[in-house]
Automatic annotation (TrEMBL):
Keywords: Hydrolase. The keyword Magnesium does not apply. Pfam families: PAD_porph (PF04371). This is Agmatine deiminase family protein. InterPro entries: Peptidyl-Arg-deiminase_porph (IPR007466).
Length: 342
């Protein structure tokens, strides 16, 4: 099975999306009402196209979430609840990384350290094992890997090319050389090319420059990325340098990538702290792209860029201003599950 394993691209057919419902014992407690509205909008958007699995902490959380979603007239036939313990709701980083094989799936379970020990993450680190123990997935096995890696730090084209950032991987593993990290990522994720970005960051981001806030594959020959065209903005130099790096990358066939720059939203400041609003943190699902919206004039332009990058898919804005208060956005709270896994 190992020789035939492949890391699917996000745009490939999915069986469901996995999320975790926010509740009063998570970091969302202070603004729980606001973030619940975002989760309701997210579930409504996903269930238009495919099923969703929702982790809930206990019976009370499940009953509450079911009531809120039902009252929003969501198709509950496409909603499945899973009772399991979790610290927080960033399932992009604590959820399973799925490799597809000829006869099933291998779920990679890397160590989740709360982004380098910034936050408590013991229960989140046990999430993948717990989901398998209660038979959440079909035809799958778990591979535990004693190496800190988050799903938001990696991006694949589904054809053997991985895109990631040096800043994040170096922060997690400061004693490892780039060649060593390159080889290990390629081996575990069954990739034959690893493309590194040395530039790009967002203020308010505590992931140490996850790739899914900066640059994303839209096809094996196309990359959508967060641009900054405001020379007075503190991000301008870094994101311009990142754009130049992306322009220098080549596809497997030796051609430049088709590049789709996303507009730069106005700064979002909360209690003196700038929040990490990125349009690159979108989620691809069956037939659609869910786009983080920030109640900003640039939302419309971002949707137009995504329409060009993903022809034939509906672009569905999801209000995400409440999410960036906790330093993440739409892609960060979700994990797609390939077709056949559920």
């Amino acid at each position: 099975m190992s020789e035939s394993l492949r890391f699917p691209a996000e745009w490939e057919p999915q069986s469901a999306v996995l999320i975790a419902w926010p509740h009063a014992d998570t970091d969302w407690a202070e603004r729980l009402g606001e973030v619940e509205e975002t989760y309701i909008a997210l579930v409504a958007a996903i269930t238009r196209f495919q099923p969703i699995l929702i982790c809930v902490a206990d019976d009370d959380v499940q009953a509450y979430a079911r009531a809120r979603l039902s009252s929003a007239r969501i198709d509950m036939e496409r909603v499945r609840f899973i009772e399991i313990a979790y610290d927080d709701t960033w399932l992009r980083d604590s959820g399973p990384i799925s490799l597809r094989g000829r006869d099933g799936f291998r779920l990679l379970d890397f160590r989740f350290t709360g982004w380098g020990g910034k936050f408590e993450a013991t229960r989140d680190d046990q999430l993948v094992e717990g989901l398998l123990d209660i038979d959440t997935f079909s035809n799958s096995s778990r591979q535990s890997i004693d190496f800190a890696l988050e799903g938001g730090a990696i991006e694949t084209d589904g054809a053997g090319t991985l895109l990631t950032t040096w800043k994040c991987l170096n922060e997690r593993h400061p004693d490892a050389s780039r060649a060593s990290l390159d080889a290990r990522l390629a081996d575990w994720l069954h990739q034959d090319r690893v493309l590194w970005l040395d530039h790009g960051y967002l203020e308010g981001d505590d992931t140490d420059a996850h790739i899914d806030t900066l640059a994303r594959f839209a096809a094996p020959d196309a990359i959508v990325y967060q641009a900054c065209d405001d020379p007075t903005d503190s991000h301008h130099a870094e994101l311009q340098a990142m754009a130049a790096e992306l322009a220098a990358l080549r596809t497997r066939e030796g051609q430049p990538y088709r590049l789709f720059p996303l507009p730069w939203p106005q700064p979002v400041i909360d209690q003196g702290r700038r929040l990490a609003a990125s349009y690159a943190n979108f989620l691809i699902i069956n037939g659609a792209v869910l786009m983080p919206a920030y109640d900003d004039p640039a939302d419309r332009e971002a949707a137009a860029v995504l329409e060009k990058a993903f022809p034939g898919r509906e672009i569905v804005p999801v209000p995400c201003r409440s999410l960036i208060w906790q330093n993440g956005s739409l892609h960060c709270i979700t994990m797609q599950l390939p077709e056949g896994l559920v």
